From TrEMBL:
Residues of the signal peptide: none
Name of a matching Pfam family: Acetyltransf_1
Protein's UniProt name: GNAT family N-acetyltransferase
UniProt source species: Arthrobacter halodurans
Chain ranges of the N-acetyltransferase domain: 148-191
SUPFAM superfamilies per UniProt: Acyl-CoA N-acyltransferases (Nat)
Amino acid sequence: MATILGAQSAFREWQETVAEATGGRVFTTHGCSWVWHPARRRLMLLFPDRPEAAGLRPGLAEGNRLGATEVSVWMNAAADASALRGFGFTDAPPILWHAGEPEAGRNPWDGSVRVGDPVPEATGADAEELQVAGLPGRRVVHATARTTDGVLVGRGFAQHASGGRLALHGLAVAGAERGHGIGRALVAALASSPATTENAAEDARDEGTAEDARDEGARGERTELVLGCSPGAGGFFAACGLRLIGRGRHLLLRPPAPPRG
């Protein structure tokens, strides 16, 4: 059964994987764990229990040195954010943690979803982040959705994180194409792709249950997913059959500035 702590762990692992793929950094400062994404010039503080000035000050100073244009904090809803407010952080829309097995059903969309195909249209940070699917040992797959004319209209990532969780990240559908079943098709493809099945079997072997994993695959049983999304996407994932397991907090420093003394 997926938990909020498990979903947070999968989210953390993904952010660290993206940093590794794009030449970023992971570092700590007095109990604060930071991730630097140079492709987006984004500094993130991940799930501090009780952030204090002693950890925030050097982390923000490092972000200023790196040239961060965005500084964000993701944290448990119960964590104390008072020190963050003292540095100018304000609340942004929360993150909603979902988990479950996607519902089966006929998809009316007539386009195609493929896992692992190249994306020649990708440029800039999008192109750099696609490298996460090729990192050895990180077990990430990427799916694209295209119309019958070959136009790219959606994409998403899935990562087999530690603990056997399959986490979805970066699911996106072009605004004009929403409501046609593309998102559902991406979720289904990422949950049931051969690469996903192989990763699940590897996890099961590690736990001595490979035979059970093969039996489940033969019966067509689906992998339980975990993900974090914005409030606006919560209805979509609920419609896919995923349940809300909790809420987290998201804070931003607007605009990023050197830390106060």
